[in-house]
Structure formats: C-alpha cells, structure tokens
Design a protein that fits this description.
3-stranded antiparallel β-sheet
Length: 89
C-alpha cells in the first residue's frame, strides 16, 4: 500500500474491490471465502475496520464503500489529510 501512496497526489483515488467480512454470526459469501483462503493459503479476509487500519498505516483513508450486487464491495481510498506546519514569518 505504501508504494501506491508514494505514487499518488491529493487528487488521486485508489479503488479496492474486495469482499468485506460483515460482523455477526450470519452466513455470507465473504465468510465462506475467508474460511477457504485460511485453510488453503493461511491468509484471511478483512473487516471494514481492518481495512481502515491497513489503509491508515499507508497514509490513506477510506472515503466510501459501495456494495455490489455480485458480492465484493468497492472501496474508494484517498490520501489522508496531512496538516502542514505553520510557516514562520
């Protein structure tokens, strides 16, 4: 993610299309895929809060999440606002 941030400017957008694991015990395709990936590859899916933490560590912020009718969600990511130090006269 940090490589992406280095190539972005303040007007750039990074789009991530991924399944987001919903909280709670109910069934979802994302949870089924998470279990499959965990068993087969040792990795796991992420919740929205985990995506926010991952993006924040790279200097990005989640601008909006758009659900799709086919399963994965589209996440729009922007550069975090960096406060500039005050100029000395």
């Amino acid at each position: 993610m940090k490589n992406n941030t280095g190539a972005m400017n303040t007007n750039s957008r990074l789009w991530i299309i991924e399944y987001i694991i919903e909280p709670g015990p109910g069934f979802s395709v994302a949870k089924l895929l998470d279990l499959e990936v965990l068993v087969m590859g040792g990795d796991c899916g992420r919740t929205i809060d985990e995506y926010k933490a991952l993006l924040g560590a790279a200097g990005l912020a989640l601008s909006r999440t758009i659900p799709t009718k086919i399963g994965p969600a589209m996440m729009e990511c922007i550069m975090e606002k960096i406060e500039k130090p005050e100029e000395f006269p």
